[in-house]
Amino acid sequence: MADYIPKKDAELVAWSANFGSQVAANARDWDITEKEVTELQNAVDTFAALHAQADSPSKNSIIVAEKNAARKVLVAVVRSLAGFRLKNPVITDAQRIALGLHVRDTTPTPVPPPTTRPEIDIDVLDVRRLKVVFHDIGKDSKAKPYGVIGAVILYAVLDAPPTDISALNRSLLATRTPHIIEFTEEERGKTVYMTICWQNEKGERGPLSEIESAIVP
């Protein structure tokens, strides 16, 4: 989210004047003390005055330095109020907008079902263990697609290649790559077949990869 503090000094002069007037007008309702209002107004007025001098033909390096220092003070006072006092629950979104602050979007962004499929590489790790490395198709990065929590691996040790996906009757959710799959002593030397797909946080799955195979070491 972009910062609510204007970057340009001239814009900050106008923005802070509005911010100060809004705070002063609502200080009692927002539980802001008179001391805090005075501190804010002094910071607003000081920066505005020094900005006017620094923007004039008669400016010098001392005035510019004082203006920059006054800006830092003003920003610090504003952020202190905005980060503490102005988080008061009685302040409405409309009032925050009037202050020049951002309103937090509380509507969650919907997570779509995965649309891409991962690719897998199966490597021998050691006895009875295979290492499954996966990534989004066509990409070298290990990063998962947006909204994806992991990859569902469907696999089975079979005597022949499966003719239907239902033959891959074992499944697991791998949240990181690589993922290690362990086998029994009786499965050593046999062929494991597997496919993989992405799954999002709602349990929705994407398309399956090609079925790959490997010999259980």
Describe this structure in words.
The protein starts with 8 loop residues before the first helix and ends with a strand. Strand 1 and strand 2 form a beta hairpin. Helices cover 32% and strands 24% of the residues. The protein has a four-stranded antiparallel β-sheet, with no helix packed on it. The chain has a three-stranded antiparallel β-sheet with strand order 1-2-5, with no helix packed on it. The model has no long low-confidence stretch (mean pLDDT 91). The chain is elongated. Helix 1 packs antiparallel against helix 2 (34-54) and helix 2 (34-54) packs antiparallel against helix 3. With 217 residues, the chain is α+β, with helices and mostly antiparallel strands. It has two domains: 9-99, no CATH class; 118-215, Immunoglobulin-like, CATH 2.60.40.10.
Main pleated sheet:
4 strands, antiparallel
CATH-scheme architecture of the largest domain = Sandwich
Query: What count of helical segments does DSSP give?
Result: 4
Radius of gyration: 31 Å
Low-confidence stretches: none
CATH superfamily of the largest domain: Immunoglobulins
Question: What brief labels describe this structure?
Answer:
24% strand; 32% helix; alpha+beta; three-stranded antiparallel β-sheet
Walk me through the topology.
Blueprint: H1 9-26, H2 34-54, H3 61-83, H4 93-99, E1 118-126, E2 129-136, E3 148-158, E4 170-174, E5 179-182, E6 191-200, E7 212-215
Antiparallel strand pairs: 1-2, 2-5, 3-4, 3-6, 6-7
Give a brief description.
This protein is an alpha+beta fold. Helix content is 32%, strand content 24%.
